[in-house]
């Protein structure tokens, strides 16, 4: 059973992190206003798993992406960025009959509102190259957006089982929203089933409320562990994060920056820092600190891919180091 004071020593493989899911166009408003009142939008690269990979690549990790885009101008734009960021695209599929997905988001210092127009992302097909990529990877990351509709969901569930059976570390972002699922509330059980298979999950307070109804942070942690979660990182917005293993007292880590320009992609940048720590055998607690540190730089810019310093610079700036073995 994992403890927040444990270090993991992932087997070194050609790919550090492979992610499955959407890459899309984020149309973020220039105004800080409710989405229905926003008039002016600027396009940004988006999609949680794609953001995680690009930020992870910038933090000196090797990454690969399993995704599907439309054979269109927006798809070309996103693919060019992924290429420039050196993400492995062997498993990027091109769809000639469905468009690249687009999401409209309102600029916000709190949790933003959004409206999604789905397309090629839903049609990700299971190909033999995908299994080969998982075999080559230390960590497999997946979010929840891609799980909401078939055939992508069916493909994802098979890959998740394959990763777990082959002892690949599984990181899952359980962001359930019933409005995205044709089955509505029934989709909760699928999310809970994946939670039970995951090594790390990182829900927000909003995510927890959508999955379990309104409750306290500590009760949310208990409920996630009751689902079978090993390590839960509950993000609390301006109040930082709670890191829990279900047996030790949860650890509270405060936010590292009070300067907030835009929170879009903050959770994805946290994942990038956290997984970078896990890959370098920092303790789980120290890895969460590193996640907070990367997110602190992210929220000072606009868009999910605003710049972040090199990994060692971030660790030095926030005095993050692996010297926590044996702490209680």
From TrEMBL:
Domain Carbohydrate kinase PfkB: 17-309
Listed Pfam families: PfkB
Record SUPFAM superfamilies: Ribokinase-like
Keywords annotated in UniProt: ATP-binding, Kinase, Nucleotide-binding, Transferase
Gene Ontology MF terms in the entry: ATP binding; kinase activity
InterPro entries: Carboh/pur_kinase_PfkB_CS, PfkB_Carbo_kinase, PfkB_dom, Ribokinase-like
Domain of life: Bacteria
Family indicated by similarity: Belongs to the carbohydrate kinase PfkB family.
Designated name of the protein: PfkB domain protein
Organism of provenance: Halanaerobium hydrogeniformans (Halanaerobium sp. (strain sapolanicus))
